[in-house]
């Protein structure tokens, strides 16, 4: 099983949209997927039209088995739901020195014993105890970023936090993925910032997800993009030089490759 967490201290950059779209895409492709809602806003539930619930808190803060709290939101897509009581999880990670290693161990053990092949963790904005615990539990940290000047800062914050964790834990943190979202081809700003990302992070930058109003509509209808607008440009990418680049379909292909690599 591989764990991917979606982290950026900047809010509204497409963390939840990406976790849900990629998670459901993998589930449709036959993977057994666990999506953990680690954001007290409970946006995963809103987007998938399932009830918010304190499953994440009951699992970690109250130490109940994960199995009791997961919900199958779509075939093969299991959600450990969150709500504002997720605050208690954050408090525990902050106050108890052994809570972080416990978190890391329990995610893997329980998700694997439930037969999950992929675990995605959606985090809220911020870079706090929960985000760092999720980083440590992850094989890959996905950093969605909308290529605009102020939004770029969040990427440097996440990668430097990962470097600090590397320093203290001896882990290799090359395993991050920068996923540019809300890309607008005709804006010079989008192009400049995308180039800046590629110059700094090279092939760790994945092809961009186009800005697309259908994404906002799908969330409002409680549907995933595969259900609401599978042919839209956020999924299919943009036409450039006779071929298509970017979009969630391409990101999904790359993710499957990582999963198959073992
Ligand atoms: N490619 C896109 N094109 C247009 N709108 C998008 C795109 N991706 C996401 N959005 C919209 O932008 C808003 C923020 O997206 P999302 O909730 O995924 O961000 P987030 O990083 O999870 O936010 P938060 O930090 O609050 O958790 C939502 O309204 C979403 O529908
Ligand atoms: Mg979110």
Offer a concise description of the structure.
The protein has 262 residues and is α/β, with parallel strands linked by helices. The chain has helices at residues 15-28, 43-48, 55-60, 86-95, 99-113, 129-137, 149-169, 188-201, 213-220, 225-228, 233-236, 248-261; strands spanning 2-6, 33-38, 71-74, 77-80, 118-123, 140-145, 176-180, 238-240, 243-245.
Main traits of this protein?
binds adenosine-5'-triphosphate, globular, 48% helix, 7-stranded mixed sheet, two-stranded antiparallel sheet, 262 residues, Rossmann fold, 12 helices, AAA domain-containing protein, DNA_Partitioning_ATPase, binds magnesium ion, alpha/beta
Description of the structure:
The protein is α/β, with parallel strands linked by helices. The protein has 12 helices and 9 strands. It has helices spanning 15-28, 43-48, 55-60, 86-95, 99-113, 129-137, 149-169, 188-201, 213-220, 225-228, 233-236, 248-261; strands spanning 2-6, 33-38, 71-74, 77-80, 118-123, 140-145, 176-180, 238-240, 243-245. α7 (149-169) links the parallel β6 and β7 (176-180). The mean pLDDT is 93. Adenosine-5'-triphosphate is lined by residues 11-17, 39, 43, 124-125, 181-182, 209, 211-212, 215-216, 219, 234. Adenosine-5'-triphosphate (ATP) is lined by residues 11-17, 39, 43, 124-125, 181-182, 209, 211-212, 215-216, 219, 234. Pfam families: AAA_31. It comes from Bellilinea caldifistulae.
């Amino acid at each position: 099983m591989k764990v991917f967490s979606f982290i950026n201290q900047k809010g509204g950059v497409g963390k939840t949209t990406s976790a849900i779209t990629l998670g459901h895409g993998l589930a449709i492709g036959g993977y057994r997927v666990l999506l953990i809602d680690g954001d007290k806003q409970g946006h995963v539930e809103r987007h998938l039209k399932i009830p918010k619930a304190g499953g994440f808190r009951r699992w970690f803060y109250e130490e109940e088995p994960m199995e009791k709290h997961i919900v199958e939101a779509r075939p093969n897509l299991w959600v450990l739901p969150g709500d504002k009581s997720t605050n208690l999880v954050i408090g525990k990670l902050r106050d108890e020195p052994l809570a972080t290693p416990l978190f890391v161990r329990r995610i893997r053990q329980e998700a694997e014993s439930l037969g999950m092949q992929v675990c995605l963790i959606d985090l809220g904005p911020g870079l706090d105890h929960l985000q760092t615990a999720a980083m440590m539990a992850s094989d890959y940290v996905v950093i969605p970023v909308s290529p605009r000047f102020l939004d770029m800062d969040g990427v440097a914050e996440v990668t430097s936090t990962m470097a600090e964790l590397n320093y203290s834990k001896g882990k290799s943190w090359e395993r991050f993925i920068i996923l540019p979202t809300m890309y607008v081809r005709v804006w010079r700003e989008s192009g400049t910032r995308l180039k800046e990302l590629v110059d700094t992070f090279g092939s760790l930058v994945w092809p961009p997800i186009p800005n697309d109003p259908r994404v906002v509509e799908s969330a409002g209808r409680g549907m995933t993009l595969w259900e609401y607008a599978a042919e839209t440009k956020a999924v299919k990418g943009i036409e450039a030089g006779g071929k298509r680049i970017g979009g969630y379909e391409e990101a999904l292909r790359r993710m499957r490759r990582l999963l198959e690599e073992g």
